[in-house]
Write a structure and sequence with these properties.
mainly alpha
């Protein structure tokens, strides 16, 4: 099935979009993958940025309810508590910088950062959606710039 998806331009866009939605991988994996598939840079960038941003409002709006539901189930309760703790810890680090800190958390393309973590931290800090979204979008765009430089730098070396 993966071969079929990567055989067409639309399939390449779809897979780039969905890879960018995956937690931890996010845009850091989606953008280089789209470029490696031969997508034009602008198309790979648009697909990966949009894919990375799709989960953000849902995380901010619903993650606390989801954690509450998960905690009722013994098997998922520990996982929910661990993720919630991570969100609070990241939130504490950025709380004194507000939306600028949120933007920087999302912008730095390292493990434990990104749009998912930023959205989780925003939810834990009770940052309203209309204040969090612009910071997260800017952070994703900065991360995209960094990833682009790294990707094309690696391609130039190889």
């Amino acid at each position: 099935m993966l071969k079929w998806l990567t055989a067409t331009t639309v399939g390449k866009i779809i897979i780039t979009f969905f890879i960018s939605m995956v937690p931890v991988v996010e845009l850091r994996g989606g953008l280089p993958y789209g470029i490696s598939l031969g997508l034009p840079y602008s198309v790979a960038l648009a697909a990966s940025v949009l894919g990375n941003l799709v989960p953000v409002p849902f995380i901010i709006l619903f993650i606390r309810k989801i954690f509450g539901w998960m905690k009722k189930l013994h098997v998922l309760g520990k996982l929910a508590s661990r993720i919630e703790t991570t969100g609070r810890e990241k939130g504490e680090k950025i709380s004194r910088y507000g939306t600028i800190g949120l933007c920087l958390l999302v912008a730095i393309p390292l493990p434990g950062t990104g749009a998912w973590t930023g959205a989780l931290a925003a939810a834990m800090l009770d940052i309203r959606l209309k204040r969090a979204i612009p910071s997260i979008i800017l952070g994703v765009l900065i991360a995209a710039g960094i990833i682009t430089m790294v990707t094309y730098g690696v391609i130039a070396v190889v």
